């Protein structure tokens, strides 16, 4: 069954050209030209992945992403203008899995879509580093790879695909430091370039989500200039 991708952009030329490229690759495409219609459509009929632009009428991409994350963990790629670094960081903090700056090549977008969909499938399957059944248990943390769920001290923590893979990478090796390149490989896969600040933004959001369940959460430590590690129990 073909995977479905939503494209949300008020530039109809982008919608037409990207839709044609993705349909040729076997994907089913839904297009929206503003945030409000996209929100209604995506809530009624979820997709496998969404590509969102920032600047749109009737609800911009930032608000749309925030509203989507209240009800869905579907993978999201954020489109942002070349000079809008603040938008990139804000998009990641709101829960985007990846971002691409405009103007972009359709080949690059296709590669990012493929990589994110593969990660999404992999996050729901049993991982090679997990015990039988796809369960990773580290003290108060329980990750279920088959269901893509995260529990901390009995409370559910809603994680995106990228966030889940980052927590998994850290939790599998408690006490060991993971530098940013290693975390990029774990969450995005090899041969995908991602800026270091992307990992930092994801970790900040992960901590924020855990602290909704536990105000004192401090299990993920920062080693400045080196990377991150999951504290041993």
Oligomer: single chain
SSE order, one letter for each helix or strand: EHEHEHEHEHEEEEHEHHEE
Largest sheet: 5 strands, parallel
Enumerate the strands of the largest sheet in spatial order, edge to edge or round the barrel: 2-1-3-4-5
Give the distance, in angstroms, between the N- and C-terminal Cα atoms.
43 Å
Structural class: alpha/beta
Low-confidence segments, given as residue ranges, are 126-132
What integer value in Å does the Rg equal?
Answer: 18 Å
- The average pLDDT is 84
Give the number of helices: 8
Percent strand? 15-25%
- Number of beta-strand segments: 12
Coarse shape: globular
The percentage helix is 40-55%
Salient structural properties:
233 residues, alpha/beta, 8 helices, 12 strands, 42% helix, globular, transcription regulation
If you had to describe this structure to a student in words, what would you say it looks like?
With 233 residues, this protein is an alpha/beta fold. The protein has helices at 12-24, 35-44, 61-69, 85-94, 106-123, 161-171, 180-188, 196-213, and strands at 4-8, 28-32, 49-53, 76-81, 98-102, 135-138, 141-144, 149-152, 155-156, 178-179, 220-223, 227-230. It has a five-stranded parallel β-sheet, sandwiched between helices. A hairpin with a 2-residue loop joins strand 6 (135-138) and strand 7 (141-144). Helix 2 packs parallel to helix 3 (61-69). The termini are far apart. Residues 126-132 have low confidence and may be disordered.
């Amino acid at each position: 069954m073909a995977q479905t991708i939503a494209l949300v952009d008020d530039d109809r030329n982008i919608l037409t050209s990207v839709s044609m490229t993705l349909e040729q690759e076997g994907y089913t495409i839904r297009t929206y030209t503003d945030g409000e219609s996209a929100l209604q459509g995506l809530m009624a009929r979820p997709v496998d992945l969404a590509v969102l632009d920032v600047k749109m009428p009737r609800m911009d991409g930032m608000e749309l992403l925030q509203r989507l994350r209240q009800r869905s963990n579907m993978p999201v790629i954020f489109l942002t203008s070349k000079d809008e670094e603040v938008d990139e960081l804000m998009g990641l903090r709101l829960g985007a899995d990846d971002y691409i700056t405009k103007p972009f090549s359709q080949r690059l977008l296709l590669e990012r879509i493929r990589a994110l969909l593969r990660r999404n499938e992999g996050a729901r399957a049993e991982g090679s580093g997990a015990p039988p059944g796809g369960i990773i248990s580290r003290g108060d943390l329980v990750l279920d790879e088959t269901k893509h769920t995260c529990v901390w001290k009995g409370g559910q923590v809603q994680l995106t695909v990228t966030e889940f893979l980052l927590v998994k990478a850290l939790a599998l090796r408690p006490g060991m430091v993971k530098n940013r390149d290693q975390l990029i490989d774990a969450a995005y896969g090899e041969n995908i370039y991602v800026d270091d600040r992307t990992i930092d933004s994801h970790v900040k959001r992960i901590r924020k989500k855990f602290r909704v369940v536990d105000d004192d959460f401090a299990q993920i430590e920062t080693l400045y200039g080196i990377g991150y590690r999951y504290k041993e129990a």
